[in-house]
Amino acid sequence: MAVTHGVHPTIAVLERHLTLYRRLWQASVFSSFLLPVLFLLSIGIGVGSYVGRVQGVDYLSWIVPGVLASTAFQIAVGESTFSVLGDFKWVRAYHAMRATPVGPMDMVRGHLLYLVFRVTIAVVAFLVVVVFFGGLHSPWALVTPLVCALLTVSVAAPVTAFAATIDHDSYFSLVFRLVALPSTLFAGVFFPVEQLTPVFRPLAYASPLWHAVELCRAATLGAAPAWPVPAHAAYLLVWAAAGLFLAVRAFRRRLED
Amino acid sequence: MADQPLIYARGLVKRFGEFTAVNGIDLDVAPGEAFGFLGPNGAGKSSTMRMIGCVSTPTAGELRILGMDAVHDGPRIRARLGVCPQLDNLDPDLTVRENLVTYARYFGLSRAESRRRADELLEFVQLGDRAGGKVEPLSGGMKRRLTIARAMVNDPDLVLLDEPTTGLDPQARHLLWERLFRLKQRGTTLVLTTHYMDEAEQLCDRLVVMDGGRIVAEGSPRSLIETYSTAEVVELRFPGMPEVGPRYAAALEGVGKRVDPLPDRVLVYVDDGDAALAEIQRRGLEPTSVLVRRSTLEDVFLHLTGRTLVD
């Protein structure tokens, strides 16, 4: 028997995603690397020249952390929809893994680790660009990849659970239209949530994106976030833990029988 | 425990809601055996295979694979199984070789070992020249060979093949059979489902016929034919078929052990074809065509599971 226990099954699943990424990376270059920079140029500089200063800083510096977190958010949501459903329904890659020692927990963790990798390279690349625009004002900016990694798990895990539950990809338009787009527009990425009518503000507070934006903004500007840091982090952790639980349960159910 | 069966099942049941897919079966598969599940669609073959592969939990009964409990030791059992599923689930965006290496890593094999196994197995299934190519353009037979290579990547003690040659052309089937026969010669235990009788006769030392979730017959291909059929079958066509079929069937009564009138011909199950032909002539029956052939598993199968179309 040639079985050795050299690599953890979770890492083996991560490797599969990385191998696929090496084949298909070109497809996501625009959305992961170019789009954030275009936002920076068009809204940060273009719109910013009319806006002036927001909460005491120039508009470009103000939206940098927002674009940063929302890039992580977009990758986390986008990569947890069709590709997850596809690996159940069309490719049946999860069924292939199920026949090996790889379990549902390994499948979910491998997928999330892959997204953390994807997000990390995207946000680090963006940070490097931002440095040249003078958009970072504190060494705390170095922790923003960690915040984005946490945001990735807290968003990707529940979306992955959803993708593993449904049987038809048309449900994803619900996620994109009712969750992802409003979050991006109203969770403090482009303007402070205080601008929202008080009735709608709780919706922004409910979105994991707003908490990550607040943490990233505090880090890049060297200022205190809206809530205490542990409160923002705890909120993201709750989403991550609940999402992980739901995703593993959804995978187990889908692969049983 | 040398003679411990690789698969041991007693009273195995699988229910999906109200539907009973597997209705209390007993199995013993010995090391080195090539064992087949034969049966029409919906007989419970695939459900049984999925329970043996530890991806589906039995509703009731006892199931031990490689001496371990199928419910509690799933990951440890799966580490020693090779599975070739009915539906191909190769990664279409990876290369042929990457498919094998990626899969080998699921079993915890080192990178170097994974690559070595991949190259060795690609040679074995005659896909060495396609190693760097994508999976998508491969023919059905090539994909199936790749899936079988993938099932061998962990050097399994037991290989499960769910309808390995369904949908393949004759050349592809024969190449696959030849490769599977080599595995068998190496001592690998094979368990397969099929509804091709020739496949079962080619590959299986022993098989069970399933129908409606139960095992209705068990034995070697030869012993099943001896038990459930006769040595030879006489196929007769008469002018005016199918209307006159039942009348001729009645006239043929007693010529052999059993008469089976079909819409286009009448089958007479006999021990001696020549003697039967002489008797048919003596009775003054004049068929338009006569064929005497050896009994096959197909005769056993149709006798046991009926001629009604299942789906």
Task: Explain how this protein is built.
Chain A: This is Transport permease protein. Chain A: It is a multi-pass membrane protein. Chain A: One of its GO terms (cellular component) is ATP-binding cassette (ABC) transporter complex. Chain A: The chain crosses the membrane at residues 24-51, 71-91, 112-134, 140-162, 174-193, 233-251. Chain A: InterPro entries: ABC2_TM (IPR013525), ABC2_TM_bact-type (IPR047817), ABC_2_transport (IPR000412), Nod_factor_ABC_transporter (IPR051784). Chain B: Belongs to the ABC transporter superfamily. The complex is a heterodimer of chains A (257) and B (311). Chain A has 257 residues and is an all-alpha fold. Chain A has one domain (27-255). Chain A contains eleven helices and two strands, in the order ααββααααααααα. Chain A has helices at 9-24, 29-51, 59-78, 82-89, 93-98, 104-132, 144-165, 172-186, 201-206, 208-221, 229-255, and strands spanning 53-54, 57-58. In chain A, strands 1-2 form a two-stranded antiparallel sheet. In chain A, β1 (53-54) and β2 form a beta hairpin. In chain A, α3 (59-78) packs antiparallel against α6 (104-132), α7 (144-165) packs antiparallel against α10 and α10 crosses α11. The longest helix of chain A is centred in the middle third of the chain and has 29 residues, at 104-132. Chain B is an alpha/beta fold. Chain B folds into two domains: 7-218, 3-Layer(aba) Sandwich (Rossmann fold); 230-294, Alpha-Beta Plaits (2-Layer Sandwich). In chain B, 34% of the residues lie in helices and 26% in strands. Chain B has eleven helices and 14 strands. Chain B has helices at residues 45-52, 74-78, 96-106, 111-124, 140-151, 170-185, 197-203, 221-228, 245-251, 273-282, 297-305, and strands at residues 7-16, 19-29, 34-38, 60-65, 68-69, 81-84, 158-162, 189-194, 206-211, 214-219, 232-237, 258-261, 266-270, 289-294. In chain B, the strands form three sheets. A six-stranded mixed sheet of chain B has the order 6-7-8-3-9-10, with helices on both faces. Chain B has a four-stranded antiparallel sheet with strand order 2-1-4-5. Chain B is elongated. The mean pLDDT of chain B is 90. At the A-B interface, α1 and α5 of A face α2 and α3 of B.
